[in-house]
Amino acid sequence: xPFIDIGILMKPHILVVDDEEPIRSLxxxxxxxxxxxxxxxxxxxxxxxxxxxxSVNLVILDIALSDEDGLEILGWIKSYFSxxxxxxxxxxxxxxxxxxxxLKKGASGYxxxxxxxxxxxxxxxRILKSA
Length: 131
What we know:
It is built from 6 helices and 5 strands, in the order αβαβαβαβαβα. The chain is an alpha/beta fold. It has a single domain, classed as Rossmann fold, CATH 3.40.50.2300. The radius of gyration is 14 Å and the shape is globular.
């Protein structure tokens, strides 16, 4: 019988989707240190594959991926996995129009890449508690 690490099964699973490797690594390391199971993806197709094949509890999604618009991926997620919370991540600063569009498409949150990590952690806790 294969060994299953029960601890991994009980940890919330976050998927970080960003085409910038330093951002993916930073967020993955940070959330792992805070007890989360983390997967990362650099592309929209890879993100879709992870969402379809693994049990993901929350997605942190870059709004401007190099291969596809983050809002399009958000729309796909909400079409097929409507209860999966998504936090949109932006390096473009605050843009009210993008914020409104992301929220209209079902995003649970919208944060800047410059947001202190502890504040992002609080946002993740808040969303997962209400999910």
